Amino acid sequence: MKIAIVHDWLVTYAGAERVLASLVKIWPEADLFSVIDFLSDEDRAQLGGKVATTTFIQRLPKARTKYQRYLPLMPMAIEQLDLSGYELIISSSHAVAKGVLCGPDQLHVSYVHSPIRYAWDLQHQYLKEANMSSGLKGKVARMILHYMRMWDQRTAAGVDDFIANSHFIGARITKSYRRESTVIYPPVDTRGFTLQEHKQDYYFTASRMVPYKRMPMIIQAFAAMPDKRLVVVGDGPEMDKAKAVAANAPNVTVLGFQPFSVLQEHMRNARAFVFAAEEDFGISPVEAQACGTPVIAFGKGGVLETVCGLDHPHPTGVFYPEQNAASLIEAVEAFEASGGRITAQACRANAERFSEARFEREIRQFVDLRLSTSRQARQTTQYRAAQVTPAQVVPSLVPGDLSARVVPIKSV
Questions:
Q1: CA torsion, ordered 76, 80, 86, 90, to nearest 10 deg
Q2: Which residues on neighbouring strands pair with residue 298, listed in sequence order?
Q3: Are 46 and 189 in contact (CB under 8 A)?
Q4: Rounded to an integer, what is the distance from CA 187 to the centroid of its chain?
Q5: Where are the alpha helices (DSSP H) in 185-318?
């Protein structure tokens, strides 16, 4: 059986690429396809050294660093990938990967990290953050996103089964595509983040510094709590803004980008991990819990499925309702007043629900079952077609039949 795995684009090794790595591990014989592939050798090792078959966008100017500008071309590009020789197609999609063309004799299972965020319910937020909420650029961007929505909805018909990475994304799939989905949580390397029961007196946050992660807001909250120490790891477009907020907060340490070993050590020893994004799933809060570290998180999105709040019999974190500093400050106070109800052991036990082994087992079982069902359905269709005689398909026209079909014409 020939298997194709399709990914949106390969530029960095992040959350979606961890899912891809597990898919490649399950089906090492599969061929890999992507719009572009500029992975480093170090990151490619996580994919077993596989190099993707790419599209014409790979050869366009600055495709490595400015690939987002080619988003309007990606629907056409992904449709040019020839997957006609594959029985099983697995797409890992948060943008266009699910739009590959396939036929009735092929099974297409799509693991969806999210329907295209910036084309659906988060359009207004993304346009605002990109300073394109008005003016000519804004109008052009809205036209492009309108086209992307129509294409995204139309190509949902080419997917046989949707797998959502959380119930939160499952609801988005239903809303955008009017399709049902099965939830299989993504894999988290719980073995790489080991339990640490004794904590130090500081809070910790780590993330790419992009607008929706709200890193400057977290720093602002702790700047207003000078008796509480915060350590920040990460880099990105909002780094200067984060440093500016931290400049007047001696209790906040901004370390910038750090290697995994440094991030892991801070995660294991922190009093709590602070999270402010509305994520589809959110791997970092699970990694923190794997270390036995409680989570203080904005209570929306996938984190509601991965963290147990104070109302749970075995809580692992605290939620705050608003994405602002005042709400976060109240959550930190609630955490400190919780009286040790959150234990490192409960955090670790909860994180184990999202292990790599669990993901690989669940998705293999799902795909194997769907393959078996699909093959049986095709065999049944072929059997029924073989039982149909030519006389049943096209009635013969013998002379007696012909006369019965003659309609006399009366002259007027």
A1: -30
A2: 320
A3: no
A4: 11
A5: 215-223, 239-246, 260-269, 283-290, 303-306
Amino acid of residue 194: T
Nearest to 289 by CA among 312, 303, 307: 307
Which part of the chain is CATH 3.40.50.2000? 203-356
As given in the structure block, the two tokens for residue 199 are 């904590």
Rounded Cα gap, residues 315 and 155, in angstroms:
41
Tens-place pLDDT, residues 140-188: 888 888 898 999 999 999 999 999 999 999 999 999 999 999 999 999 9
Q: How far apart are CA 140 and CA 146, in angstroms?
A: 10
Asked if residues 173 and 179 have their Cβ atoms less than 8 Å apart, the reply is yes
pLDDT higher than threshold 80 for residue 118: no
**CA-CA-CA-CA torsion sign (222, 227, 233, 239):** positive
User: Would you say 350 and 291 are in contact if contact means Cβ atoms under 8 Å apart?
Assistant: no
Among candidates 149, 146, 181, 176, which has minimal Cα distance to 162? 181
Residue-wise pLDDT tens digits, 321-331: 999 999 999 99
Q: pTM of this prediction?
A: 0.85
Encode 277-305: b = buried (16+ Cβ within 10 Å), e = exposed.
bbbbbbbbbbbbbbbbbbbbbbbbbbbbb
Beta strand pairing status for 107-112 and 161-164?
parallel
Written as one letter, the residue type at 123 is: Q
Contact 227, 255 (CB under 8 A): no
CATH class of 3-185: alpha beta
pLDDT per residue as tens digits for the range 385-409: 677 666 565 554 445 544 444 444 4
Angle at 153 between CA 302 and CA 89, to 5 degrees: 80
Paired sense of beta strands 31-34 and 107-112, if any: unpaired
H-type alpha helices, 101-166? 123-129, 135-155
Q: Which CATH class is domain 203-356?
A: alpha beta
